[in-house]
């Protein structure tokens, strides 16, 4: 396990959860794969209690599940999961975009523009995983700029599942260079203070990819 030898056990829990989370979200750990405490203990050179605590944290985030007598498994989005996350995200992102457009200030506008330009830059030459991360961070920033504390709390409850959903949607969109450009009208509406347009575009954003992902999963489930 990387890190200073003086780091507390609690920090090891957090570090282990952070590493596993990134492996799940980026696909390094495949959806549905089995996780054993013994193997993870050996892999990360930490105690089984640390592994168990990390897995429990990820379970609370909806990224892993514990199946009686078989152990832990990485989340595998089914059509119902994708449908729920798709609709929940539309509502949360729509409200966040409206509120942010209504209260956007120069400092927030600069952060938003920087995040947008970072995404566009990655689309020109970046790795699909980095693009998905930048995509998520841009939407998360819009939520943060909304100034709505309870909205941020609800977003946090499902944000890791939303990261998985965004990565899955982006995988349905083979032309990665256009992912950044598709955010352009939404960012423009927010920066101009056009709340109605910002909310509409946020709700419509990724609708096609979300629908395609749900359709693909439904087809797989009927095979």
Structural summary, described in words:
Helix content is 74%, strand content 4%. With 223 residues, the chain is mostly helical. The protein has 2 domains: 9-74, Winged helix-like DNA-binding domain superfamily/Winged helix DNA-binding domain (Arc Repressor Mutant, subunit A), CATH 1.10.10; 79-222, GntR ligand-binding domain-like (Four Helix Bundle (Hemerythrin (Met), subunit A), Up-down Bundle). It has a 3-stranded antiparallel β-sheet with strand order 1-3-2. Strand 2 and strand 3 form a beta hairpin. The longest helix has 25 residues, at 79-103.
Compute the number of structural domains: 2
Radius of gyration: 19 Å
Q: Counting H and I runs of at least 4 residues, what is the number of helices?
A: 11
The H-and-E topology, N to C, reads as HEHHEEHHHHHHHH
Shape: globular
- Within CATH, the superfamily of the largest domain carries the name GntR ligand-binding domain-like
Q: Based on the coordinates given, report the CATH architecture of the largest domain.
A: Up-down Bundle
């Amino acid at each position: 396990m990387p890190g200073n030898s003086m780091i507390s056990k609690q920090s090891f829990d957090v570090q282990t959860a952070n590493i596993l989370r990134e492996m799940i979200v980026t696909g390094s750990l495949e959806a549905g794969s089995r996780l054993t405490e013994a193997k993870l203990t050996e892999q990360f050179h930490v105690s089984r209690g640390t592994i168990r605590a990390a897995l429990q944290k990820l379970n609370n985030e909806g990224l892993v599940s514990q199946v009686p007598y078989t152990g832990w498994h990485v989340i595998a989005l089914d059509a119902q999961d994708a449908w729920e996350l798709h609709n929940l995200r539309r509502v949360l992102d729509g409200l966040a975009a409206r509120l942010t457009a209504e209260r956007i200030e120069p400092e927030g506008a600069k952060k938003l523009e920087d995040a947008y330009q970072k995404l566009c830059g990655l689309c020109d030459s970046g790795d699909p995983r980095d693009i998905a991360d930048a995509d998520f961070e841009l939407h998360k920033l819009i939520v943060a700029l909304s100034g709505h504390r309870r909205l941020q709390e609800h977003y946090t409850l499902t944000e890791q599942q939303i990261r998985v959903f965004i990565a899955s949607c982006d995988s349905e969109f083979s032309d990665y260079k256009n992912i950044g450009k598709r955010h352009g009208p939404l960012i423009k509406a927010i920066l101009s203070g056009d709340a109605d347009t910002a909310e509409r575009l946020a709700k419509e954003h990724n609708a096609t990819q979300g629908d395609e992902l749900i359709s693909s999963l439904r087809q797989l489930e009927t095979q």
